[in-house]
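Colleagues,

For the teaching module next term, I've prepared a clean inverse folding example: a structure given as tokens, and then the sequence designed for it. I'd like students to try predicting residues themselves before seeing the answer, so please don't circulate the second half yet.
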């Protein structure tokens, strides 16, 4: 397996402790990892492991990755920009606009962005007693064989809304991909334009995020990219398949976007420094729910004593992305992961340990608290 490597740009800022953590991540089971760290002293980038199971190259540091639930942060920023344009209102009932759905008229845009609407999660719900109620297939042989199936966001919303609500609107907090699919539908209905077009107009083009996209049915990742894999059982035989190509419409705005570590860094820095969302709405975004430390599309955490970070991480079938920044944008950590996923989510433990090791190394001394994904 290749040694951990760093790019020429990082040579002036030697970070042996980060190279060590990257190699430990590969040793723990990740196929490949890329890391980008920006501090007032400069930028450090590194890669470890493999871009492809049968290859020899490390993952491309500037490669494209499926960023999973980081999509939610992009979507929340877009929604707030439409609030500034007067197209959307944070505390107005979304049912006034989304009239084709049987939505509780107490649900607001704020509740959708903060996961307090109570709507059923269309990828399935696990209740407090351990009961699991399935939704759209996203694991196992069924998902692998159907990974090129196309889902309309309207279909996912109707599936979720056909199930009993988890709680009364505003009464609790529960993470649900449905919330952000409803935001996608709300944006398209309120503007009269496709969600992807609005994302390009207000977020991607102004920030020149040329490596970031909403797939819109595209199954391929732009080059360069590392490969993602999925392991499943078929008639008693374990199979591992390359799932880099897939139609991510099954997750919709819950996690379908593609980006790069450089673009994630540019985006989250612009967000927290007020270059993207106005100060008053940024303050709303960073006001968190006490149950989860979740604001509007972001977590706010204190991974080391005295240092608050704004973050959202994401994973989708063998690809993952990390995105962390201090509130002033001075120090950022973004990363891309490629690995072999499975129904048991066996990489979740190594993922949590890796983040717990990276955060104190990047943001200061001390032990980190376990992060929310």
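(Answer key — instructors only)
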């Amino acid at each position: 397996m290749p040694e951990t490597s760093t790019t020429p740009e990082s040579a002036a800022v030697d970070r042996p402790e980060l190279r060590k953590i990257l190699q430990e991540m590969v040793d723990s089971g990740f196929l490949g990892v890329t890391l980008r760290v920006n501090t007032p002293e400069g930028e450090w980038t590194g890669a470890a492991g493999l871009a492809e199971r049968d290859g020899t190259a490390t993952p491309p540091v500037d490669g494209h990755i499926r960023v999973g639930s980081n999509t939610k942060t992009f979507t929340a920023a877009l929604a707030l920009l439409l609030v500034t344009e007067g197209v959307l209102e944070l505390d107005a009932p979304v049912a006034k606009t989304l009239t084709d759905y049987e939505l509780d008229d107490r649900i607001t845009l704020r509740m959708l962005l903060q996961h307090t609407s109570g709507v059923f999660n269309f990828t399935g719900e696990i209740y407090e007693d351990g009961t699991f109620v399935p939704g759209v297939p996203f694991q196992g042989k069924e998902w692998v064989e159907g990974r090129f199936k196309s889902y309309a966001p309207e279909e996912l919303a109707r599936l979720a809304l056909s199930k009993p609500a988890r709680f009364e609107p505003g009464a609790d907090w529960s993470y649900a991909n449905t919330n952000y699919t409803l935001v996608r539908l709300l944006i398209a209905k309120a503007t009269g334009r496709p969600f992807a077009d609005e994302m390009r107009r207000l977020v991607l083009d102004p920030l020149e995020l040329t490596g970031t996209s909403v797939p819109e049915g595209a199954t391929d990742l732009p080059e360069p990219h590392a490969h993602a894999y999925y392991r499943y059982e078929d008639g008693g035989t374990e199979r591992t398949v390359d799932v880099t190509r897939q139609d991510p419409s099954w997750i919709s705005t819950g996690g379908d976007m593609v980006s790069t570590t450089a673009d994630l860094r540019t985006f989250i820095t612009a967000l927290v420094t007020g270059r993207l969302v106005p100060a008053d709405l940024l303050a709303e975004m960073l006001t968190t729910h006490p149950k989860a430390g979740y604001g509007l599309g972001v977590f706010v955490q204190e991974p080391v004593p005295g240092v608050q970070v704004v973050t959202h991480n994401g994973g989708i079938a063998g690809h993952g992305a990390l995105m962390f920044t201090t509130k002033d944008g001075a120090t950022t950590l973004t990363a891309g992961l490629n690995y072999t996923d499975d129904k048991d989510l066996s990489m979740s433990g190594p993922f949590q340990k890796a983040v717990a090791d990276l955060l104190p190394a990047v943001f200061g001394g001390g032990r980190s608290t376990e992060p929310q994904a």
